Amino acid sequence: MVEAIIEGFEKAFQLILSGDPEVLSISARSILISGTATLLAAAWSLPLGLVIGVRSFRGKRIVRSTFNALLGIPAVALGVILYLALSRSGPLGFFHMLYTPLGIALGQAILITPIAVSFITSAIESVDPEIHRLAKTLGASETEASFAVLRESTGGVALAVTASFNRAVAELGVALMIGGNIRGSTRVLTTAIAMETGRGELALGIALAIILLLLVAAISVLMNVLGGRR
Amino acid sequence: MSPMILLETRDLIKRYGDAVVLDKVNLEVEEGDFLALVGPNGAGKTTLLRIMGAIERPTSGKIYYKGEIVGGAEALRRASTMVFQRAVVFSGSVYENVAYGLRLRGLSKGEVDRRVGEALRQVGLEGFERRNAGKLSGGEQQRVSLARAIALDVELLLLDEPTANLDPRSSAIMERIISWINSERRVTTVLATHNLSQAENLSGKVALLMDGKLTQMGDADQLLRNPLGPMRSFVKRENIFLGEAVPEGDGITSIVLQNDLKVVAATPMRGKVIARVHPEDIIVSLSPIASSARNVLRGEVTGITDRGGCVMLTVNAGNEFVVRITHKSFREMGLTLGTSVYLVFKASAVEVM
Description:
The complex is a heterodimer. By secondary structure, chain A is mainly α. Chain A has helices at about 1-20, 20-55, 60-70, 75-85, 100-125, 130-135, 140-150, 155-170, 175-180, 190-200, 200-230. Chain B has a six-stranded mixed β-sheet with strand order 6-7-8-3-9-10, sandwiched between helices. The model of chain B has no long low-confidence stretch (mean pLDDT about 90). Chains A and B meet through helix 6 and helix 7 of A and helix 2, strand 6 and helix 3 of B.
């Protein structure tokens, strides 16, 4: 086992340094699919987080608690539900998204929405409430004042986006159930790791796992650096 | 021709849940006025200012600006601006802070630069453009708040206890700038304060807000120097006394109040003055204590009011003083009506105006 791990590390660096086309394309696909999922989730989570964070309305606590409760939703359970919905006979079958990269991206976006909304809401709520009033008294409309609050919470929002991307790129359930691990089309890092390890190709599995870890670490460091510039 | 009424509120009511914060407030602010809104904490001053600045909506009632009813909030929001009690700044540079409102109004880069530079010069922060606003002192941040207001060139300036958290030097600088904005720039100004000396020094008119009701309004000099009706009871609650000051040298002034009661203040003054001692600045003791405090008055407890977090004692020591103490002190000292006590306070705790 130890040998396999050492061999895995050697192979990982070999694959990375040699620029193995298969490994590169799987990694690039992972980034593209999970990046799309993160953009989709951010597109609806940002306004949602802003409304929950800035406005006060009836049922606000219930909405917040619901998103917090959904933080731990098992990816595989969501994968099954989406599989049933997107399969040809399912209610969303006409979209023909099963076994497509876009299908995985949509599934991952739904999976990470509770993370994005909860983190963004917390970031917005941590901003001094007087900032909203300050913007308004300087002439801002409600929307402009909300953007002023959003600007003050850039660090927290960046953290929310990073955490969301990391969860998306590292999940297996949705990618496997909706993507189907089709070589050259929907095979991503996590499905490839599961497959290679299952086949006994431990070294390749470990190599891909190291690439996944490096990717997650690199994104986190990058966002930290960008966040630290403000 | 009488001056134009810039802003008028009619039957303004504001409720938060069951609590009535403003109760049918009818207020007129004439163009060029400097109006001080005075009243105890929780009287509704901040809420009234926020409604006047259109950053909060009233539950009911009407607001007229230059004779026209205010429908949407934006027009009034663009004509006025408010400086908050606690300095609030956007993250980023001083320039970004002052430029924010100007950019919202679509001004050109050159005009924004010009106005930011001019406003910072007026508040004595010339050359601070690139400094991080969040790293400035509280006093400097409040001056940035005033610079924002000057740069916007608004018609109505609303100030919510802008010097409450500042040291005396910063407060004096702020008061000078505020006075300049009203007198030189002719900006109509409404100042909420519970500092009556500030109200008297700065404003021409004063309005008293008690428990959400506008109970009295009039000429500041007249109302504060010869308080009658509700203002008299407010002034009494705040330990404000009329007296005759006589300098005693060494920067000490002796003030003879009504009933020949004498207190010592650390401000050189002469003639008729108003003296004020904050209820929280007075120490109550059961026996005379040796201390550096110049004022030790013997009196008797004549009133005890539980104010939730503290107990307010009324002590007759020749004049009636109101003193704030904690529940713990109250219990431990075993105070009841008629208990003989000593009131101790420093000469520097006596504000003279």
